[in-house]
Structure formats: structure tokens, C-alpha cells
Amino acid sequence: MHLFGYRLPGMSSLILWGLLWEIVGRADLTFFVPPLSEVLATLFAIIGTPAFKKALAETAYAFSLGVFFAVVIGIIVGILMGKNRLLDELLLPWVNVFLSAPLTALVPVLMVLFGFGMKSIVITTALFAVWIIILNSRAGVKQINRSLIEMANSFGASPMDAFFKIYFWAALPEILGGVRIGIIRAVKGVIIGQLLISIVGFGALFELYSANFLMGHFWAVLIVLFALAFTISEFLAYLERRVSYYAAKR
Amino acid sequence: MAMSQIKEAPNHIEVVGSDSAVSVRNITKNYGEVEALRDMSLEFPRGQLTSLLGPSGCGKTTLLKIIAGLLLPTSGYVEVNGKTVQGPGPDRAFVFQDFALLPWATVLNNVAFGLEMRGVAKSEREAIAEKYIGDVGLSGFEHSYPHELSGGMRQRVGLARALSVDADDLLMDEPFSAVDEQTRRKFQEDLLNLVQNENKTFIFVTHSIEEAVYVSDQIAILLPRPSRVSEIIRPSSFRNKGVDNIRRDPEYLDIVDDIWSSLRTYVE
Amino acid sequence: MLSRANLLKILSALVLCGAWELAGRVPVSYAFPTFLDSMQAFFEMIGNGMMLAAYKETLRPLVIGIMISAVLGIGLGLWVGLNNFFDWLFSPIFIVMQAAPLAALIPLLVLAYGIGLTSKVLVVCIMAMPVIVLNTSGAVRNTPESFKEMGKSFLASRTSVLLRIVIPAASPVIFAGLRLGISAGFIGAILAELKITPTGVGDIITYSRSIADYPSMYAAIFSIILLAVLFLNLLEKIETILFKGNQRGYVSD
Fold first, then answer.
1. Touching C: A residues 182-221, CB under 8 Å
2. B187-B188-B191-B196 Cα dihedral, nearest 10 degrees
3. Is the pLDDT of residue B223 over 90?
4. pLDDT tens readout for residues C215-232
5. Is residue A30 part of a domain?
6. pLDDT of residue A131
7. Which residues, numbered 17 to 36 in chain C, qualify as contacts with chain A under a Cβ-Cβ cut-off of 8 Å?
8. What is the CATH number of the domain that holds A147?
9. A119 lies in which domain range?
10. Are B107 and B149 a contacting pair, CB within 8 Å?
């Protein structure tokens, strides 16, 4: 996209949309859209408040824990499935089922079994993320070039050595890709969990603000959330690019 | 070395006998800072096959696409039949290196595509397409899809498509490089027969020396950095000896050796 | 005789159901009914027509939302894919929407549009549209250059190139985008039911939970997961048949 001969950077239209938001807000077209400047001011005001910090801490805790379990379990199960045909045939149909299933429907089950608290949210988060990580880890292992395996054997590499020095790196780009998508899903999972269970983290804040019609606050928190999600996603994409320099030539 | 070939330096281009179907005059093509072609001039005799031969990076495909009207030169012009080229036209047909077949269309529809774009009615274009499908040896495959065909068969479809629009000039961009060696040899033999039987001008891009010397009436050797025509060779004595005898003809072998020794230094 | 793959699938299904049954009997928790109890409730609800009535309610915002998303999404995607200005203008919005947890907007939608059909349809739309738009615009933009060149060389008009080359070439990825959009739409529909007002299947779930009728609750959840999975698998099969041999859309969300 060129303007007056200068190349405009990728996401620059967001500035335009921001301006639009400001104008719409000032024109007071609808109660639900306060001007962007007001939202940003509120944002900076509430970031330091204890309520916000608590919500952020709770969400971050649930998110990190959920992601941790999803990554560990996902990578291990995925690798095992990639290497063992029987396990693969037994589990793959289920992984595919849960990948496309609307996991939101399972949240009430979790609420009933594990209560209304942090535990359910962590499990929701992990559930949202784990299936794609399993699938990608499995794919990463399966596509390891046969010749690399034969090479490792011909040089007498021990199983530990072979795994850590060759197979892990050969599968890594694919695994990282799965982790990135998994983390994006985990973000959705942690929010959906909080929305439905709603007495912790940002879910609680959203309830509070909407009940009191604090639109400025509502949008402010929403922006923070979206910005966090986007930043995480971009950071992971960056990591993936760093590793993928050899990905095409495996 | 027998004097049965004529080597010419590019500044004294004199085409003996036939007139030029295509004239390239002082073509320069820049991509930003990179000079792909610099001040290139060349003549292509009517009714004959001229090869553009050279190592990668010498601009031969760029030149071909400029002649086809798919690319615009930075300066200079191309004349086809006396008219300056402004874009693609009904007088030129292109055969692509990667076949460029529409994966969702049958062989029949692919071959008829050029005719369809020219507004030819369905029954007529299908009849024409069927004829050319038979000509390239693919009878019976009219309703197959590209993914069901081998690489060689797919290129035949591309060739049939280019022939069906009955253009005066056929432009071929390394058409045989994506098929296996045996199929390639067969294609080269078929091409010789095609050139004899059709009254068209062929411009043929390749990086294979043997291929160029085998099929061409005239070979233009291009060198890179800067891209220029270094020599033009017109093999003459083995042209009519029949497809099976060319590869052992002494003149053929001499020319191939000569070209290799001059191109050798340009291989990275 | 069944193939090994199918045999193992059935076996693993049996294992899972068996595990469910055992877990229910142990019991893992008072709120964990056995597999057989849940299946009984499931078939009961089908039998007395509750299931059908519930799905009519639940599927309404889903179907409406998907149809709107498909039409608007593909239209917008084509526009964005073909026009550089609109690409610059709209792509960032949809890219942000794809990475962001859109479910967070639900309370806002409820505030603005109440608890009726409108907000539920909107929930489905905001969940489904980003992936449809991005897939469509990406597919159009990434049309293999040699196809377009081939069209040009055979004197195809710009309209012809668009209709006969670009769109057919983009179809597999567009279809994949639709499939992913529908998958997201399902999530939106359920979220809407559980969070906005329970109607249809969501109603069965919340009501059964409140009266501690866990078999019914699990049966309802089982039914919706089953429906979603069957439907999406069907779409995948259709995709395979339609685009056999064509470049297939391997796009992850």
C-alpha cells in the first residue's frame, strides 16, 4: 500500500481505525463506544489498581499452568504417537475428535466435577491447547527424514543421544508451530473458562464493569487482553521463524 | 572443424534466406538495481526453430516473456511481423516450464482454454482441441485430470493448448526440463517433426547444450552479467539426416563440445 | 472383515466408554454418572422429542450466523484479496481478531443487544468471520503466478482471469476456511447458550445441572459434541471429494 510514493507499514491502518474510534466516541453516537482517548486514560488509570493486578495475576497463573500442562503432556503424547503405530491408531481418532469438537461444551462438566475455581480454569485452558500440540508433535516426529535415522544408527548413536541431538531438533519447527497455535487457543480457553466460571480473573472484572455500565473500564481491559494475546502470538511467531531457518531443508 | 556451420558475432546479424518473424531490438530490462538484460538485439527467422541457450541467470526466460508480451522491457522494443509488441497477442503462444495446467479442468477443457478466451464456440473449440490432443498422442485422455497424468503427459497437454490457438509463433520456456530423461529425448524427436510439419516460428529456451544443438536451426548463446548474445550458431549439415542419426553426427558432437568449452567458465 | 484401522477405532471407542463406565461406578465423583446412565438419558431425550426441540432452538442462531458469516466473509475476503487498499485497511483488524479471545466481547454484546436472538447471532458471526475472511483473502492473493501468466498469455480478460482462474484456484482454501469458521461458530453458539440465555440444548445442560440430573446433562453435552464432530467430518469428506487432486487447503486456525 503506497501513499505519496512511500510504503506504509503493515498494520498502520489500525491508526486510522483508532482515529475513527475517537471520532465516533466524541460524537457520542452510542453509549457503548466512549472515545478512544477516554478508554486509554482509563486504561492507564486502572493498570496500577489492585483489582486489575489481581485479575491479571489470576489469569496469568491459570494460563501459565494450563499451558505448561498442555505443552508437556501434548509433546510427550505426540512424540509417543509418532513413534508407536499401535498407540497412534488407538489415540488419533480421539485427538481429531477433540480437535474439532466445541470444547466449550465440556466446561459445564468441569465446573460440576472440579468446582467453580482456579482448577477448572486451568483444566479448560489445558484442554483447549493440548490437542493441536499433540497433533503437531506427532507430525514433527513422523516427518523426520528416514536417512537421518539411518545415519544415526550407522554412527552408533545411543538412544538418548539420537533423541536429543537429532530427532528433537528435526521435529522442533513443527512442534513449535503446534505450541504457537496451542497457546493462542489457550488464551481463548482461559477467557472462555473465566467467562463461564466467572468469579476469578478478568471474567470477574468483566462482570463487575458490565453490571455497573463502566464502558470505559470495560474497553480498557478488553484492549489490554487483546494486546497481550496479540503480543504472545507475535513473539511465538518470531521464535518459530528463528528456528525454521533449517525447516525447509530437513 | 568442418566449415559447415556459420558462427556469427552479434553485431553482424545477417539472416540468410528467410525473413525475420520476430525482431528484438536493443532490449534492456532492469529490476530495480539489477540489470537482467542489457541492450540485446536478435533476429528470429521465420519458420525455423531458434534456441536461446545459456547458464542460469543469463536472462533467457526474461527475454522470452518480453517477446510474449508478459513482461514490459525497460527500453527497446520487439517487433513481431512488423508490429511492435505491446502485450500478449493471438500471434504468439506460450508453453510453460511448469505446465501451468488448471488442476480442476479436464484435459479437453485445458487444451480448449486458449480458444475459449478467444470466444470460440464450445462445440467448435472442443473439436479443435480433440484434434490436437490426438496430435500430441493423448487420445483417450480427454476427460482425465492433470493430477492423473505423468509429467510428460501434462506437458503434452500444454503443447496441445499452445498449438490449438494456431499462432504464428510458438514460445517455449524450458518445456522439457521438468520431465525425465527418456521422455525428454522422445519430446526432442517429436519437436523436430513438429517444426518440419508446422509452418510456425519456434523460439525455444533451454539450458541443455545437447538439446539445443539437436532441435535448433539456429542457436543464440546468451551469457550472464551482463546478459548479452555471445554468438549465434547455425548447424547445417545434419538437419535432414533423420532423428535417429543426429546424435552421432560428427558435426553435432563438435558443436556441442565447442559450446561447452565456451560456456564452461560461466558455471559457478 | 473390518480393516485393522477401523477395528482399532472401535476398540479404542469401547475402551473409552468402558473407562467412563468404570469411573462412573467407582465413583470418581458424585457428579459423574456412568456411561450407560448417560446413554439411557440420551436416548430418552431423543425418544420424547426433547432433543429435537432443543436443537431447533440452538441451531437457529448457528445457522443464521454461519450463513451471514459465509456470505459477508467470503465477499469481504475477495475484496481484501483483490484490492491493495482494502487489504491495508481491513487485514490488521482480522489478524488481531484471529489471535484475540473474541469470547471476551460477549458481555459487551449482551449489554448492547440484549439477550435475544440478535446477540446470539452476533456471537456466532464474530467467532466465525475472521478465519473465513483471512482464508479467502490469503487464497486469492496467493494464486500461483504461473496460472495468471498463462491466462494472460492466452489473452484472457481480467474478469476471465478472476472467474476462471483465481477463484477456482482459491476454492479449496476458501472451503477450508468455511469449515474452520463453522467450527468456531459452534463454539460461539454454545457460549451464547451457556452465557446469554439458556435455550435449547444449553437449557437442558443448565437445568439438569441445577436439579442434579447429571446423566441428562452429560447426555446433552455428548450430543452436541457428537453433532459438531460428525458435521465437521462430513464437511471434510465433501472437501476431499470436491477438490480431489487439486491443491488442498492445509490451513490451521
1. 184, 187-188, 190-192, 195-196, 202, 206-207, 210, 213, 218
2. -140
3. no
4. 888 888 888 888 888 888
5. no
6. 94
7. 28-29, 31-32
8. 1.10.3720.10
9. 35-249
10. yes
